[in-house]
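Re: beginner question about structure tokens

> Can someone show what the tokenized structure looks like for a real chain? I only ever see the sequence side.

Sure, here's an example I had lying around. Input first:
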Amino acid sequence: MSTEPPITKLKSRSICVRGHRTSVRCDDETWSALQEISKDEKIHIHDICTEIADNKPTVLSLTAALRIFVLSYYRNQCNRLSDGEHRLPN
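And the corresponding structure tokens:
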């Protein structure tokens, strides 16, 4: 069993932040998670990205802020489990 993490290619996607188009490079997992969150929260992915961009520390890139947002979102979901158990995804 390899201890090396899988190699993930970054993909550029065009998004709107504050009404301006910009390109962001993230891995497929981050893009998929953002799409899921967008669907679950019934908010457009561009609005999520604008909110993240407006509230991120200046030292973080938008890409890093998006990854932190996704991680935080799902950590909060785990913490809300009513039975208190932390389960790993299948």
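Each token stands for a local structural state, so reading them left to right follows the chain. The longest strand covers residues 10-17.
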